[in-house]
Amino acid sequence: MPGPSSTSSRSTSTLSTSLRTHTCGELREEHVGQTVTLCGWVAKYRDHGGVVFIDLRDRYGLTQLVFDPDAGEKLSGDGLNAATHELARGLRGEDVVKVTGTVHARGEGLVNPKLSTGAIEMRASGLTVLNKAVTPPFEPGADQLPGEELRLKYRYLDLRRPALQKIMELRHRLSKVTRDYFDEHGFLEVETPILGRSTPEGARDYLVPSRVHPGEFYALPQSPQLYKQILMVGGTDRYFQIARCFRDEDLRSDRQPEFSQIDIEMSFVGREDVLNAIDGLIAAFSTELLGKEISLPLPRLTHAEALDRFGSDKPDTRFGLELKDISDVAAACEFGVFNKTTASGGKVRGLCAPDAAAKYSRKDLDGLTAFVGEWGARGLAWFRVIEEDGAVKLQAPTAKFFTAEQQTQIIERLSAKPGDLLLFVADKPSVVNAALANLRNRLGKELELYDPAELAALWVLEFPLVTRNEEENRWEAEHHPFCAVHPDDEEKLKSDPGAVRAESYDLVCNGYEAASGSVRIHDPGVQQAVFDLIGMDAEEAERRFGFLLDALKYGAPPHAGIALGLDRWVMILAQLDNIRDVIAFPKTQKAADLMTGAPGEVDGKQLEELHIRTVAPPK
RNA sequence: GGGGCCGUAGCUCAAUUGGUUAGAGUACCGGACUGUCGAUCCGGGGGUUGCGGGUUCAAGUCCCGUCGGCCUCGCCA
Question: Which residues does L-aspartate bind (predicted)?
Answer without folding.
Answer: 201, 247, 479, 520
